[in-house]
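Review form for a predicted model. The reviewer records the input and the model, then writes brief findings.
Reviewer: anonymous (R2)
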Amino acid sequence: MFTLNPERWQELSPYLDHALSLAEEERAVWLNSFQANRPDLAELVKELLQEHRVLAQAQFLEHPPQAPEASLIGEKIGAYTLLSPIGQGGMGSVWLAERSDGRFERQVAIKFLRFSAASQAGAERFKREGRILGQLADPHIAELIDAGLTASGEPYLVLENIVGEPIDAYCDQRKLDVDSRIRIFLDVLSAVAHAHANLIVHRDIKPSNVLVNDKGQVKLLDFGISKLLAEDTGAAATTALTGEGGGALTPLFAAPEQVTGGAITTATDVYALGVLLYMLLTGQHPAGPTPRSPADLVKAIVETEPPRASQAVATLNAEVRMEARGTTPEKLGRQLRGDLDTIIGKALKKAPPERYISVTALADDLQRYLKHQPVSVQPDTVWYRLRKYVRRHRLGVAVATASLLLLTGFSLIQRVQLRRITRERDRADRIANFMTGIFKVSDPNEKVGEAVTARQVLDKAADDINNDLSKDPDLQVQMLHVMGRAYLNLGLFSRAESLFDKGIQASKSFGGQNGREAMNTQHDLAWALLQQGRVNEAESIERTLLETQRRVLGPEHPDTLATAEELAFTVCDEGKGHCTEGIQLTRDVLQKQKRILGPDAFYTLVTMDNLAIMLANDGRLDEAIKLQQESLDRYLRVFGPENKGTVNAMLNLGEFQRDAGQNDQAVRTLQDLLKIEERIFGPNQVETASTRYDLASVLLRKGQKDEALALLRRAIDHGLAPRIAMDLPTDPLFASLHGDPRFTALLPHARNKPVSRKTD
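Model under review:
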């Protein structure tokens, strides 16, 4: 068994993922090729694959350990008699015993090595546990009473017998709320902080090692894999003892550095405490609710950022977990959002230096949260401190505010209301006059009662805006924007461009060029130019707008991020090979959305889809497929299969797989998508046409011409997109069908499909 440092794991992980995705025969071919290209990594990948194979056969993590030998009941260990087994773990077995020498009565827990695993290194590690526990004296840590050797020379410890429930079960059965769970958790932090003060890292903090009795008293158990920091002074201190002890951990609660062979410090316990707090508050592990293989679990721990706690409450089986908390997903999500999300997120950072500097610092922030005081991990702004002050002194602030409003506000409110009513009445009159005026007959040649088209109404309204609304430039800008969007929807792009230009100029007349309305108008102006093929002009406007939004709204405002994505697509539209900047822009947007919205938020996933499209357009199909598969997995887990985002992600993935020559995978993806669409929309609806078209192209590549033609015919009959239908005769995907009379017979049907095109 070898260890991997974090950098080596990051380098190996993509190759291991790829190898695990292949069938056995494909994997052998790939490994031979990989051996020739990367001999420095090939042997490590082979060893990891072998370990994965062994663990899979052994069904690692899927079965509890075997029960201790029942024949030991009644055996005497020192002054104690064994009564019954309590449990068994990685270090050994634990038995309930009672004092039997007549000096006094007491039941205890005796812990000793599993007989079949006894070794010199194991015995030394077991003795070390006795030394560690002997240094600890805390009301929340299980007391060490005695220690010794059995007649056969096997070591044992006599521990305080704790009768209680695991902390998560205790909280759930009593339906404790968030604050109550945090107060119990603070007792756990007190115990771990005491251990850290004695230079001891627990390294296996999990619910079953934290018991709570019926009086609500917390006891932390099992320092069997603890590490004395004073003994671990450097590389020279690493021995067979520490090497063997390092492997005794619970994978679900292991920190990234534990599974990659990094240094074990107090930050390791901070991470495990973050996992425990996450589970206590949400009822779910940060890695998600789905059972995982060892490789998936390691990847989740080392690479994947967990969803925020406020988002995790609404996932699978949320109703059951919320019932144990006496609340609903919506209420709990609101309570966790903000301080608790940030506190837990800092404890769960992948890099140890980014976590809380100590368990005490984590406890301080949780205590400040309970007291409605500012926490250390939030930005120290005046508004944040004011909110916390108001929350702490709600009654006093409410009384003072009410008194102040009663004494000084009545006359002011009257004046403000009067001015507002007058202003709104004048604006309403102007809008009413404007809307009435656009239907008046101004041309003497027009006849009263003659039918008026929507285009004529829009043209007249656009001409009247400058005159009728000149006294209210703010309203004038808004109406120009509304009218411009109406022209956009009609496909009259140059007319929309003209109105957007006027609106932008009008906004400058009253200093509103940096207002939201003006910025939205610039956004739509760029879109109108793109629709006319004027890519360079659109790009210039988007760059200027993005700079303004970053300065005025901030770099992480939703409007700023939306413009950055639009600019990314614009620069990618300039042609293949020009997507580098667009891809980087979209990566930056995705990184911000993952942090602000969460990795499973809908708009985060939409940006992942956009990035995958850009990668595919740039010829980077392998990256596109991997990213699109990750996006699809998240859609399915969070939103389910019958969701518009899920459907779009599956269609993209199928097309990428087809273009990469992964025909079998593409057929599976597109067939699954077609079943979902037929279930949602019905078998003969227009929404299924594009999927049938793509599936037909893949089947044709596989030589299944009859099936491809049947699908293509159904796609045409049920509303194949007009642009695709027009390009069908020259589509290279169907080049092999040219000359086939059955394909030729389909072309008139495609050409006869109605095509709606608006021209300006």
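Findings: Residues 394-437 form the longest helix (44 residues).
Further findings: The CA atoms of residues 99 and 106 lie 6 Å apart.
Recommendation: see findings above.
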